[in-house]
Design goal:
Bound molecules: zinc ion
Oligomer: heterodimer
Strand content of chain A: under 5%
Region (Disordered) (chain B): 75-103
Order of helices and strands of chain A: HHHHHHHH
CATH class of the largest domain in chain B: Mainly Beta
Organism (chain B): Streptomyces capoamus
Number of strands of chain B: 10
Shape of chain A: globular
CATH topology of the largest domain in chain A: Arc Repressor Mutant, subunit A
Helix content of chain A: over 70%
CATH architecture of the largest domain in chain B: Sandwich
Transmembrane segments (chain B): 107-126
Order of helices and strands of chain B: HHHHEEEEEEEEEE
Radius of gyration of chain B: 22 Å
Helix content of chain B: 10-25%
CATH architecture of the largest domain in chain A: Orthogonal Bundle
Number of helices of chain B: 4
CATH topology of the largest domain in chain B: Immunoglobulin-like
Strand content of chain B: 25-35%
Number of domains of chain B: 2
Biased composition (Basic residues) (chain B): 88-103
Radius of gyration of chain A: 17 Å
Largest sheet of chain A: none
Largest interface: A-B, 79 and 70 residues
Protein name (chain B): Anti-sigma factor
Largest sheet of chain B: 10 strands, antiparallel
Chain lengths: 167, 253
């Protein structure tokens, strides 16, 4: 089944990274394909590739599954491993477009505590309150870290779009 | 607090909104502001894109053995194939019969009235179509879908892709193709053909080394179309598919 074969590595990769659990990841990945079918008519090609669309479904389902399952959204060592993995050199990622490469580079340049806060919120779906608890920092600090990190990544992709003209 | 979010406050919580980690009431207030402020909408759209790209950085990973087959079975289960929707003889491949299906661990999903099982009738998904389900679900919804295998133009033979369409409205078409023979590079146009010989240009996408995946929303009733065609920029027909009507059955847990 081509549809599944094409996208299963992507969908499973997202589910596995977020859940940290092989079995739960398979269930999430399976649900992703079922949901993609059920909601195919919602897909709008102008909003991005099929890949992005499936990735987003897988991510939402994985975050929901983790939220429903346990109080501890992620293991601290998983976060460090994942942060290393996503900031790895871009050569491995044939599909990465320029903007994604910029996000990866900007993420690698972030102060570690900002990158951690961003990954907790953006990948694991943790609220600022959960980030604050996990990092033992005040809520306001957690919010600032998330916001500052997002601002830097947004700037990086915005300049990537103008890149050939401005710089 | 008035409960109204202004632009400055929106800039503060925009990142959390875009990442989907705001609480329900905070999100409701933020969305209410976005409804009336185009600048902040654009700001959040950009942040959402950043969030998507962040998730896009997660590494691909090899699924467990048999994953593809299990998904196909999940989709084909309860197919309830009726006469006339069956595939041509010789097309379905006999598969290994599995006595016991792995009990599916139901993933708890917020707002979980989602589809829990989807099956496509009349669709030869690998080994899966022959499977018979022992106990019918309590409630079942059914909706039409159109499917077809892409075959290389003129030569027949091995499938090179698949077309799926939700008749709509709004209609939706998804094409997945791997032209391993021609290894075509470049833009292709997807046409949907009606039985009377007229056709609709559904849209263009790009093949890389013969591979491409693409989807598009199509206005109107897609059941009027009987075939799909991929045509290269020089007018060469690369592949065609006959579309067959089928049913998606969805059981609610
Ligand atoms: Zn505003």
């Amino acid at each position: 089944m081509l549809f599944v074969r094409r996208f299963q590595h992507r969908v499973f990769g997202v589910a596995r990274a977020v859940t940290g659990d092989q079995q739960l990841a398979e269930d999430v990945a399976q649900q992703t394909f079922e949901r993609a079918w059920r909601h195919a008519q919602i897909y709008d090609s102008r909003r991005g590739s099929v890949m992005t669309w499936l990735t987003s479904i897988a991510h939402n389902l994985a975050v929901d599954a983790v939220r429903a399952r346990r109080t501890e959204p992620m293991a601290p060592e998983d976060l460090e491993d994942l942060l290393d993995a996503v900031t790895e050199t871009p050569e491995r990622w044939a599909l990465a477009d320029e903007a994604s490469a910029q996000v990866r580079a900007a993420l690698a340049r972030l102060p570690r505590e900002q990158a951690r806060a961003l990954m907790m919120a953006g990948i694991y779906g943790m609220t600022a309150r959960q980030v604050a608890d996990a990092e033992r920092i005040p809520l306001g600090t957690a919010k600032t870290r998330i916001r500052t990190a997002m601002a830097k990544l947004r700037t990086a992709t915005a300049s990537a779009k103008r890149g050939d003209h401005v710089r | 607090m008035s409960g109204d979010v202004d632009c400055e406050q929106l800039r503060e919580i925009g990142p959390e909104l875009a990442l989907g980690v705001l609480s329900g009431w905070e999100r409701a207030e933020a969305v209410a502001h976005l409804d009336r402020c185009a600048d902040c909408r654009e700001y959040v759209r950009q942040l959402t894109q950043v969030g998507d790209r962040l998730v896009g950085l997660l590494p691909d990973r090899e699924p467990p053995p048999g994953f593809e087959t299990r998904v196909a079975r999940g989709l084909a289960r309860r197919a309830g194939v009726s006469e006339g929707q069956r595939r041509a003889p010789g097309r379905s491949r006999p598969g290994p019969h599995r006595g016991a299906r792995r009990p599916r661990v139901r993933v708890a999903v917020v707002g979980a009235t989602l589809a829990v099982a989807v099956g496509f009738a009349g669709w030869a998904i690998g080994t899966a179509v022959e499977e018979v389900v022992a106990s019918p679900p309590a409630t079942e919804q059914s909706e039409p879908v159109m499917v077809g295998d892409m075959t290389p133009a003129g030569r027949g033979g091995q499938d090179v892709g698949e077309v799926y369409a939700h008749p709509g409205p709004p209609g939706w078409v998804f094409v997945s193709v791997a032209l391993t023979g021609s290894r075509h590079d470049g833009p292709v146009t997807c046409y949907l053909d009606r039985p009377d010989g007229t056709s609709l240009r559904a849209g263009d996408f790009t093949l890389r080394d013969g591979h491409g995946n693409w989807g598009v929303a199509v206005p109107g009733d897609l059941t009027r179309y009987s075939a799909a065609r991929l045509v290269s920029s020089d007018g060469t027909v690369l592949a065609t598919a006959q579309l067959q009507k089928a049913q998606v059955t969805t059981s609610q847990a």
